[in-house]
Amino acid sequence: MSEIPETDRPVVALVMAGGTGTRLYPASRSDRPKQFRSLGTGSADSLLAQTVSRVHFADEIYVSTAESHAGRVREEVPEAGVLAEPEAKDTGPALVYAAHRIQKQVGECVLLCVPSDHLIAGDFESVARRAVRGAVETRGLVAFGVEPTRPATGYGYIQPGDPRDEWAEIERFREKPDEETARRFVEDGFYWNAGLFAWTPEALLREASNSPLSPLVDALEEGNPERGFRQVESVSIDYAVMERTDDAYVVPADFEWDDLGAWDAIERVVETDEEGNAMLGEGLAIDAAENVIASDGENHVSAVGVEGLVVAAYGDRVLVAPKGEAQRVREVVAELREQGRF
User: Fold this and answer.
1) Residue 3 scores a pLDDT above 70
2) Residue 58 and residue 45 in contact, taking contact as beta carbons nearer than 8 Å
3) Is the distance from CB of 291 to CB of 311 less than 8 angstroms?
4) Would the pTM count as exceeding 0.70?
5) Domains in the chain and their CATH numbers?
């Protein structure tokens, strides 16, 4: 590992574990979101536990999660502090709330913000330390830019601008593209936006004050976070802050990364058979090819004469969908929520 100068500020790792992983239904449910599963990563530990282990070099570790999951988080990672979000409203309000709380508890520090449900292999620590140093030196907001390995249409992209030392200014963020546009982005040297960030609490709160999250910042200063959450919409930190600020930077990351966001990601995690079937849990494939077959320990799934499907059976739920439509599983969850059955 290359020698990277340390910041005088303590590094606080903030693990984001408030989501429910809707696109991995039925493995991910409201009472057991995907961060509490291992999902074929080859480890007996949950994705959350793997993430906390990955940020072991931080001076302190916090996990931001829903109140309903706080007890489970304490059991899984007792070494981490737990911040219970007043309400589930996506990463924007959650990260602003956590930054304010940690600033009050720790004082001057730099936050390393990492999702709890990503798969990362390689030298994460070196890249993280560069991002931390960049956050302190620029006093801005630093994103991790993962070097693409394919023209993925399910990820957002970062267009880098002028380089500065070991990071670059962000020219602009790009939404999830179609395949032809994604191919051009890769050729032009864009990065995947991995949803990993570094910033000081004051930098994030400063930029959030000039964003749709400003009512929350004001309410936090007045000691009324519940009111602040009521006054803001559910919004990602990317849309609310990162895409609006003029003070954003990107650190190139060369580690292997996958967000395990939908069922088609499983074939990139587990070994496939000779016909390209990815098997997670107990299953059987006969005259079948290019399928994702997933189950828990209570179910056995058999697929016969089919191609390009996702077949997932967990508990009392079964999902069947074309693999190319894996992103649409969130529509199933939306309907089940309407019915009160998620």
Assistant:
1) no
2) no
3) yes
4) yes
5) 11-258 (3.90.550.10), 263-338 (no CATH)
